[in-house]
TrEMBL record, chain A:
Lineage start: Eukaryota, Metazoa, Chordata, Craniata, Vertebrata
Bilayer topology: Peripheral membrane protein
Subcellular localization, as worded in the UniProt entry: Endomembrane system
Annotated segments matching region Disordered: 584-620, 632-652
GO BP terms in the entry: intracellular protein transport; vesicle-mediated transport
Transport among keywords: yes
Entry similarity comment: Belongs to the adaptor complexes large subunit family.
Bias kind Low complexity: ranges: 632-641
Protein name, per record: AP complex subunit beta
UniProtKB/TrEMBL annotation, chain B:
Keywords noted in UniProt: Cytoplasmic vesicle, Golgi apparatus, Membrane, Phosphoprotein, Protein transport, Transport
Organism superkingdom: Eukaryota
Domain MHD: 168-421
Protein name: AP-1 complex subunit mu-2
Localization in the cell: Cytoplasmic vesicle, Clathrin-coated vesicle membrane; Golgi apparatus
Length: 948, 424
């Protein structure tokens, strides 16, 4: 019939038949029957009904039969826990069998039966097996500890198995050592605070010795474990590196990558002027290149990792461009990754070759690959200035092919080239315009419109071109609509006489017929600007734009550091931290490169870093996406292909935005108001009647009115709480709070030494955060803190540090260093700390602004149990820089209109309703972000209004 | 750390066999694999890692099978892929061919192997020669003596068993160099390198200690000797039997070899090599009527050497018809299923030049599907010769019984990834 008779059973009668065979006296028949059962199990049939009969076959001296029964047990024990007990005796007996193969088999299988009742019986046999004379049994038992820990961690700890496991690291057999390391790492990973892998120079030495002798897989376990160790100094670091480098010659790619991980990490600690540092760099390139001859999946993993390595240490592969050239038969995922690395390695030295290759790729047939190749040409132009001209002409050649998606992609990148090199390549505009009709993708249309608007004065028929887009205005995507609006305004400012009608048309389309708030807002701004002060309008709209930067797709430095620590793993493939895709790992501390407490390059002298050295800020990435100024000036076209997270807006840019508007916010708001009076448009005058559903808010904090008598008038400051418990920080306890005192934000801390030794050399540093908080000076701890001593410190903060959006918004990640170690903790500051003293808005301005904020930016919530009248509340809030602008009483309800301004220039307006006798206040807050129309920022501020 | 479970699926995504190692991922998750794969394939975004919710699939394809590992942790991806390929290797050595049927026919052994190869997601013993000593296919004949763990499994020398005996002690060394070349359409060499491999067929008794001497430039520089031609190896990879730290310190290649056939080492040399067989091609495509192909092949190697079994594969449009050929030597054949002409030359002496012309008709209706631009590829083999000039200087064999053993060396140069881009 068929080659495989076991797969032919179907009917239920067979179960009966099998039962009989299983209970047969003949060994052979029994075994054939068990085989049939396993075959049925393999094809997914339920043969659990045979449980007792199969278990009965377990007592046999036939190894193969035993294995089959064990296999059956592993599959069905969970569904029949009571019956599984039946098997325990045999297991225990097998664990003492004279044949080590059977002993190991028994202990291995027992660990796979995830039934609580069985685990209890497993302990004794496991204890024996861990001390077995045969290494094969010991190595199996070592893994079994990890299995048992997964089922019942407490049991493993109570039974002292962890200590036995640690002892196995000193075992004479390398396989046993490797499995013990693997088991310990596994347990440590799921229990990050267990401090299990207490690595010290002695254990490291043992591991390094075992590394030379164990199997390829064992080498990977050991290398991955080594990567978690932080050497004490550069000398230790170097000696470990020296002993790890031979692994780079291993035939197994995984061994090589794990070795690369250890080297990349420990290299951070080596002084750059050390000869060995240079030697190591040179040693890394060849094995990385060889990884590209591995199987395609391994190539892919290697390429994703090389992408990280190139960003962290570009010097390693800078001469290896050629190996990343794409082969015709590479799988698409390899092609795309190679392309990415080619761009990263592109430099003046190799650009000619790279361009020739990219041009070749752009004529391939795979659409995704071709698109990426075209984009790559654009990125080369932006990255290597000398090549820009050649890139542009290559792109023009490609446009001539008339292949639709090539043309569109080319136009998108040419727009970026214009932004990088303004007034240089405008001669090509004519060619671009010829292809106007074939553009059907929003990004390409938006890019083309931007070009037409930007260079309207040089394009004779710019008005006709733009008008042609206007016909289907409402069918366009938002991106195109916004772009069209701006382009026409630019055109109008450049050629006011003939385009008045056009601009009227687009403004009314944007403001009256659209329900997109971004579009409406931008429409109104332009409308009012144009109607009040065309000169100002010109200054704003036609202002000189900042150049775009080339490396918009770089991975954010702290993330990059973390990913380098995860070389070879899924995290390095996804370019995401493990916490982003592994459930239950949120509490796990992010891995960092040694010696770098958050900042990029303070790596050289981790132990001697002074306070000043530590507070050195990482270089801010100037973003070209999502920044405020750029947005207003309409640069919000997506930058050249981004992978990786969008860079954070830097506060410098925000300041710039305000300066540029001359006089900052007030004048702009005034401008808006004036515009309203001028009646150019028809702004809404009625108060919105419907409120969004109430959101719970945190203003309670601010009020904190329960027994408020003791608190003097002044900014609210929450009581100190423990940020860093002594247990986590080798005896250093930090409790603290934030306060705003005399216009200065302060971080007030109590440092308590609960350790036995003196603590000195304190320094502090912040991670980037939402509002750019940074220490304004070093941490002033002048005297050493003795055991059981506490010291109070107040650290003044500035808000000019690098900005990165945090979750939650007011989260602050802090690193504190002392003579013992570096510790990390995070805390949340009350947002009220960020309310500045000049947050009182002019009455008129307030009124105008209030009305003008779209409902989208509104949040409403209630404050419960607040027994103050409106006046008391008002004066209390004033202490925290929440200013009452106006008050009115409607039907016994006091309505307080309040304003506050955040350090980053964002205004928050609020309406506070107080019903006499009702302890619950209603707050409706609205955000002004005249400065920030971008959709990306939108969301952030909504979240923030909830915080307020 | 690595895999939670391993699955072997058929082309439709049906599970043929699986093994759950950790129990932290629902085994039913595998049902999402095939739809996910198809979806990615349709979007042209095929990727070796797929994820569904918190479950990640790492997969490879071998003949008509998918081998899939699942995990919900931040696993070591390179380890998982290496392991999956190792799995293929072990199964292939056990069953000759790894395919759907061999899995079904041998499910008992497959289960046994899966149990032995990996434990709780940690790869264990994966050396198939050693595995074959205690996991046999004729399970029925398993005797008590056989069912002992070979000490080899946990020995530091985990790749060679004790007590091997040969009447005649010999070792055969094959030095094989593959040339990878990428030539641009305008005839300039974009990249070229040599990937060499030294393979052993060891037929030696006992536990011999071997030392291989090559004309390695670094070694010669270290020892101060400088006789004759030396070779700079860019990167070297060794079988796990080679003592890596020894090589690192004094470039000595010392090892106890696995029995039988094995790849001792591979190396990569970056030097710019002259493409040994140079191809010039003129491909003229006259839309709606015909394609004319002229290919000139030139042997750019020593006159004494001969390249064997040369195959020049020239791509033609998929809608081409009525082929006509003319060759100065060898013969040309149209392979429509691969859209190419294969020009075979059995023996191609160095310095010679041959010509092939081909003529195809094209339909008058234009094929509106865009076609890629596959390159011309060349296959060949040149015996008794290495491009790099690498030489085995000596192979010292020391065994405590003191027998005399003979090493035999053979050199071959062959084509690797040998691509020449065309203009059409």
């Amino acid at each position: 019939m068929c080659d495989f008779p076991f797969f032919s059973l179907v009917c239920t009668g067979e179960i009966f038949e099998l039962k009989a065979e299983l209970n047969s006296d003949k060994k052979e028949k029994k075994k054939e029957a068990v085989k049939k059962v396993i075959a049925s199990m393999t094809v997914g049939k339920d043969v659990s009904a045979l449980f007792p009969d199969v278990v009965n076959c377990m007592q046999t001296d036939n190894l193969e039969l035993k294995k089959l029964v064990y296999l059956y047990l592993m599959n069905y024990a969970k569904s029949q826990p009571d019956m599984a007990i039946m098997a325990v005796n045999t297991f225990v007996k097998d664990c003492e069998d004279p044949n080590p193969l059977i002993r190991a088999l028994a202990v291995r299988t027992m660990g796979c039966i995830r039934v609580d009742k069985i685990t209890e019986y497993l302990c004794e046999p496991l204890r024996k097996c861990l001390k077995d004379e045969d290494p094969y049994v010991r190595k199996t038992a070592a893994v079994c500890v990890a299995k048992l820990h997964d089922i019942n961690a407490q049991l493993v700890e109570d039974q002292g198995f962890l200590d036995t496991l640690k002892d196995l690291i000193s075992d004479s057999n390398p396989m046993v050592v490797a499995n013990a390391v693997a088991a310990l790492s596994e347990i440590a990973e799921s229990h990050p605070n267990s401090n299990l892998l207490d690595l010290n120079p002695q254990t490291i030495n043992k591991l390094l010795t075992a590394l030379n002798e164990c199997t390829e897989w064992g080498q990977i376990f050991i290398l991955d474990c080594l990567a978690n160790y932080t050497p004490r100094d550069d000398r230790e670091s170097q000696s470990i590196c020296e002993r790890v480098t031979p692994r780079l010659s291993h035939a197994n790619s995984a061994v090589v990558l794990s070795a690369v991980k250890v080297l990349m990490k420990f290299m951070e600690m080596l002084p750059k002027d050390l000869d060995y540092y240079g030697t190591l760099l040179k040693k890394l390139a060849p094995p990385l290149v060889t990884l590209l001859s591995a199987e395609p999946e391994l190539q892919y993993v290697a390429l994703r990792n090389i992408n990280l390595i190139v960003q962290r240490r570009p010097e390693i592969l800078k001469h290896e461009m050629k190996v990343f050239f794409v082969k015709y038969n590479d799988p698409i995922y390899v092609k795309l990754e190679k392309l990415d690395i080619m761009i990263r390695l592109a430099s003046q030295a190799n650009i000619a070759q790279v361009l020739a290759e990219l041009k070749e790729y752009a004529t391939e047939v795979d659409v995704d690959f071709v698109r990426k190749a075209v984009r790559a040409i654009g990125r080369c132009a932006i990255k290597v200035e000398q090549s820009a001209e050649r890139c542009v002409s290559t792109l023009l050649d490609l446009i001539q092919t008339k292949v639709n998606y090539v043309v569109q992609e080319a136009i998108v990148v040419i727009k970026d080239i214009f932004r990088k090199y303004p007034n240089k390549y405008e001669s090509v505009i004519a060619t671009l315009c010829e292809n106007l009709d074939s553009l059907d993708e929003p990004e390409a249309r938006a890019a083309m419109i931007w070009i037409v608007g930007e260079y309207a004065e040089r394009i004779d028929n710019a008005d006709e071109l733009l008008e042609s887009f206007l016909e289907g205005f409402h069918d366009e995507s938002t991106q195109v609509q916004l772009q069209l609006l701006t382009a026409i305004v630019k055109l109008f400012l450049k050629k006011p006489t003939e385009t008045q009608e056009l601009v009227q048309q687009v403004l009314s389309l944007a403001t009256q017929d659209s329900d997109n708030p971004d579009l409406r807002d931008r429409g109104y701004i332009y409308w009012r600007l144009l109607s009040t002060d065309p000169v100002a309008a010109k200054e704003v709209v036609l202002a000189e734009k900042p150049l775009i930067s080339e490396e918009t797709d770089l991975i954010e430095p702290t993330l990059l550091e973390e990913l380098i620590c995860h070389i070879g793993t899924l995290a390095s493939v996804y370019h995401k931290p493990p916490s982003a895709f592994v459930e239950g790992s949120r509490g796990v501390q992010h891995k960092r490169l040694p010696g770098s407490a958050g900042s990029g390059e303070s790596a050289d002298s981790p132990d001697t870093g002074s306070a000043a050295g530590v507070s050195e800020a990482p270089p801010a990435v100037i973003p070209s996406q999502g920044d405020l100024l750029g947005d207003l000036l309409n640069l919000d076209l997506t930058p050249p292909t981004t992978s990786g997270p969008p860079p954070a807006p830097s506060s410098g840019m925000q300041m710039g935005a305000m300066d540029l508007l001359g006089g900052g916010l007030d004048s702009l708001v005034g401008l808006l108001h004036a515009a309203m009076g001028a009646g150019f448009g028809a702004p809404p005058t009625a108060m919105p009647a419907s409120f969004p559903p109430p959101v719970s808010g945190g203003l309670d904090d601010l009020f904190d009115l329960g027994g408020s008598v003791g608190m003097p008038m002044g900014a609210y400051s929450p009581p100190k709480s423990i940020w860093l418990p002594a247990m986590k920080a080798k005896g250093l306890e930090i409790s603290g709070t934030f306060a705003r005192r005399a216009g200065v934000i302060q971080m007030e801390m109590t440092l308590t030494n609960k350790a036995m030794s003196i603590m000195t050399d304190f320094a502090i540093q912040f991670n980037r955060n939402s509002f750019g908080l940074a220490p304004a000076g070093p941490l002033q701890v002048l005297t050493p803190v003795g055991p059981n001593q506490s010291i109070e410190v107040a650290l003044p903060l500035s808000t000019v540090g690098p900005v990165m959006k945090m979750e939650p918004l007011t989260n602050l990640q802090v690193a504190v260093k002392n003579n013992i170690d570096v510790f990390y903790f995070s805390s949340q500051y009350p947002i009220s700390m960020l309310f500045v003293e000049d947050g009182k808005m002019e009455r008129q301005v307030f009124l105008a602004t209030w009305k003008d904020i779209p409902n989208d930016n509104e949040a409403q919530f209630q404050i419960k149990d607040c027994h103050l009248n409106s006046d008391a509340a008002s004066s209390k809030l004033q202490g925290s820089n929440v200013f009452t602008i106006a008050k009115r009483t409607v039907e016994g309800q006091d309505m307080l209109y309040q304003s506050m301004k955040l350090t980053n220039g964002i205004w928050v307006l609020a309406e506070l309703r107080v019903q006499a006798g009702n302890p619950n206040y209603t707050v409706m807050s609205r955000l002004v972000f005249v400065l920030t129309c971008s959709g990306a920022n939108h969301k952030d501020y909504k979240t923030e209004s909830r915080e307020v | 750390m690595s895999a939670s479970a391993i699955f072997v699926l058929d082309l439709k995504g049906k599970v043929l066999i699986c093994r759950n190692y950790k129990g932290d991922v629902d085994m039913a998750e595998i049902d999402h694999f095939m739809p996910l794969l198809m979806q990615h394939e349709e979007e042209g975004l095929l990727c070796p890692v797929l994820s569904h919710g918190s479950v990640h699939f790492m997969w490879i394809k071998h003949s008509n099978l998918y081998l899939v590992a699942t995990t919900n942790k931040n696993s070591n991806a390179s380890l998982v892929y290496s392991f999956l390929y190792k799995l293929v290797e072990v199964f292939t050595e056990y069953f000759k061919e790894l395919e759907e049927e061999s899995i079904q026919d041998n499910f008992v052994v497959v289960y046994e192997l899966l149990d032995e190869l990996m434990d709780f997601g940690f790869p264990q013993t994966t050396d198939s020669k050693i595995l074959q000593e205690y996991i046999t296919q004729e399970g029925a004949k398993l005797e008590v003596a056989k069912s002992k763990v070979p000490t080899t499994v946990t020995n530091a020398v985990s790749w060679r068993s004790e007590g091997i005996k040969y009447k005649k002690n010999e070792v055969f060394i094959d030095v094989i160099e593959s040339i990878n070349v990428l030539v641009n359409a305008n005839g300039s060499v974009m990249s070229s390198d040599i990937v060499g491999s030294i393979k052993l067929k060891t037929m030696l008794s006992g536990m011999p200690e071997l030392r291989l001497g090559l004309n390695d430039r670094v070694l010669f520089a270290l020892t101060g000797r400088d006789k004759g031609k030396t070779v700079t190896m860019e990167d070297v990879k060794f079988h796990q039997c080679v003592r890596l730290s020894r090589f690192e310190s004094d470039r000595t290649i010392s090892f106890i070899p696995p029995d039988g056939e094995s790849e001792l080492m591979s190396y990569r040399i970056n030097t710019h090599v002259k493409p040994l067989i140079w191809i010039e091609s003129i491909i003229e495509k006259f839309s709606h009527s015909r394609v004319e192909i002229m290919v000139k092949a030139k042997g750019q190697f020593k006159k004494q050497s001969v390249a064997n079994n040369v195959e020049v594969r020239v791509p033609v449009p998929s809608d081409a018809d009525s082929p006509k050929f003319k060759t100065s030597t060898g013969n040309a054949k149209y392979v429509p299923e691969k859209n190419m002409v294969v020009w075979t030359i059995k023996s191609f002496p160095g310095g010679k030049e041959f010509l092939m012309r081909a003529h195809f008709g094209l339909p008058s209706v234009e094929n509106d599907e865009l076609e890629g631009k596959p390159p011309i590829t060349v296959k060949f083999e040149i015996p008794y010769f290495t491009v790099s000039g690498i030489q085995v200087r000596y192979m010292k064999i020391i065994e405590k019984s003191g027998y005399q053993a003979l090493p035999w060396v053979r050199y071959i140069t062959q084509s690797g990834d040998y691509q020449l881009r065309t203009n059409v």
